[in-house]
Amino acid sequence: MAFFLQKSSLANHFRSSYQKTEGSLAVPNRAFHVELGDREKALLAKDPSLSRFKSYKKNVWRLKRIGDVLTIVVVAGCCYEIYVKAAMREEARNQAKAAGGSE
What we know:
Largest sheet: none
Protein name: Succinate dehydrogenase subunit 7A, mitochondrial-like
Order of helices and strands: HHHH
Shape: elongated
Helix content: 55-70%
Number of strands: 0
Number of helices: 4
GO cellular component, one term: respiratory chain complex II (succinate dehydrogenase)
């Protein structure tokens, strides 16, 4: 096991990070920002021919809101049905006790 830890690149990484001296220049792990090239800028540019395929934010927001409202309505309806069934079962149980206790 010790042999694998000595040869492991992960162990080498940790070992090298601890062996840095105070005088050495600390190199950040992240790369420096590089300006985008012409091809990247062209790919990120707005294309008018694709505008008919894009969703508009207001329509998407409205559709999400309708979906949220419908979800709440369905959950509330399910909870109401469970409550009604439980109340009817309790009422039937009370009536059975009353009918059984009065005889």
